[in-house]
Amino acid sequence: MRGRIVILNGAPRSGKSSIAAAIQDSFDCLWLNPGVDAFMRMTPARYAPGIGLRPGGERPDLEAIIPGLYAALYDSIAAQACAGVNVVADLGHHDAYLRPLGILKDCARRLEGLTVLFVGVRCPIEIILARRAASDGSYAKASADDPIPAPVQRWQDAVHAHGLYDLELETSVFSPAQCAAAIGSCLAEGPKTPTAFERLAQV
């Protein structure tokens, strides 16, 4: 039996990783998470942030390798699912590079024939900024002189621009456990065809 795939897409600090962890903790069977953080840890420092490259065309020197990195990631997701392993991957898909790269369409094609639930993880920018302020990470943070840093706004504008999901979740309203439960319900009901990834593959 092939494994199921859940792709969580949203801006940094929108709650994707917490939802993925809730799925891994609460679902009865095994779920692996080869998402953006795990994949970035495998990427050599000189190519960082790899697939975590944020919108805005800030690193044109890196853009040539990004499609190949996503291809490798999605081929590995397909291989895991074909081996019977369930996969939940938290990612930040966008196409706001120096020039459009069409990565999401290519990724969707790499999962053709597999059960994929594409989930949009949304969160108001005010809450994302508050989470960034409370974080120890190197995230861009608001200040009195720069209340909404441009990189944060670009993420908000770019990450959901494609507009196609099977399910959308608002993490300012629902807890990670509630979001995981909603995903579980969708998986139990089965995919509504054409799925978001089926439509994206045909765009």
SSE inventory with pairings:
Layout: E1 5-9, H1 16-26, E2 31-32, H2 36-42, H3 60-63, H4 66-82, E3 86-91, H5 103-110, E4 116-122, H6 125-134, H7 150-158, E5 167-170, H8 176-189, H9 196-202
Parallel strand pairs: 1-3, 1-4, 2-3, 4-5
Helix pairs in contact: 1-8, 4-5, 5-9
Kindly list the characteristics that best describe this protein.
203 residues, alpha/beta, five-stranded parallel β-sheet
The count of strands amounts to 5
Runs in which pLDDT lies below 50 for 5 or more consecutive residues are none
Total of helices = 9
State the end-to-end CA separation.
29 Å
Radius of gyration: 16 Å
Shape, principal axes of CA atoms? globular
> How does the helix and strand content classify structurally?
alpha/beta
Largest sheet: 5 strands, parallel
Strand order of the largest sheet: 2-3-1-4-5
Q: Kindly state the mean pLDDT as a whole number?
A: 95
What percent of the residues sit in helical stretches (DSSP H or I)?
40-55%
Strand content: 5-15%
Order of helices and strands: EHEHHHEHEHHEHH
Structural write-up:
The protein has 203 residues and is α/β, with parallel strands linked by helices. It is built from 9 helices and 5 strands. Strands 2-3-1-4-5 form a 5-stranded parallel beta sheet, sandwiched between helices. The longest helix is centred in the middle third of the chain and has 17 residues, at 66-82. It is globular and about 55 Å long. The model has no long low-confidence stretch (mean pLDDT 95).
